[in-house]
Amino acid sequence: MPLPALNTFAGNPLDRAGDLRNDPDWVEERALDPTALALVLWEGRPLLEAAGEPRLVWLPMMQARAVAQDRELFLGMWKGAPVFAVEVEGSIDPTAGPLRGVGEFHEMREAAALLPGPDAAMAGGAKSLFDWRRRHGFCAACGTRSEDACGGWKRICPACRTEHFPRVDPVTIMLPVYLGGDEPRCLLGRQASWPEGRMSALAGFLEPGETIEEACAREVEEEAGLTVTAVRYHSSQPWPFPSQLMIGLFCEVDSEDAAPDQTELEAVAWLTRAEARAVLAGTHPTIRAPAKIAIARTLMQAWVDGFEI
Fold first, then answer.
1. φ, ψ for residue 278 (rounded to 5)?
2. Dihedral through CA 193, CA 205, CA 169, CA 295, nearest 10?
3. d(C-alpha 214, C-alpha 206), whole Å
4. Please, which residues bridge with residue 235 across strands?
5. What pLDDT, on the 0 to 100 scale, is given for residue 263?
């Protein structure tokens, strides 16, 4: 029984074939399989069907290879068929050339808001892997250009044989809650660069030697000046911009005296459940909700629905 996917970019339906993809001959045999399919990215943008319900475009692997010039990844097996991803680089939209009439490329955030969950998960995973490969083309141990292995899931240095694996950066994202007033309230924060009125959960990267709970407490204290007394996990989200794992939390704080640090946050706001419900519904007079694809919105919805720490 599959686990529930609460957040966008979760719920990838593929069997990643983690052991089998270590064999390059096996991967190549899958690529030559006449049933093999590939999704297409151009500069991180997935190719979607231009008509009907938004869906990923799936090309026969041989056609995709001709377009992508060896920039490919083995993603896994889906309903018995091999599934790949290919990436096209360059400033010219491929739908103006070799992919004319096939579909349209969309920015990943825009596409994720349109696609069914499994499609968004597969496209997001492919984007993260391509971004990792682009940023880690040279061995960190000796500086030699590294080579693809395991269908794109590993890079090996031909000089010192160091193996490099895709990087995932853990991020705590939390909704602080104060229970000491007349009714419970949650805290949202705002960064100056966001669109007018947009507020969201607090967030920050884990640091070396830090637990999830410690990172949550540190970030809340740094950004809002509050002391965390309890932490409860809610859910997580792969976030392919370029490759984070968002760890969604609720945390109880011991005071309502929040003060934005003016570095990460320019403003904060306490919301009752009714006020948070209005934000999500788009009826709050001043505050705009996080994007629908963001785990911050999932946390807010859970709070409105009565989630307890």
1. -65, -35
2. -60
3. 9
4. 248
5. 94
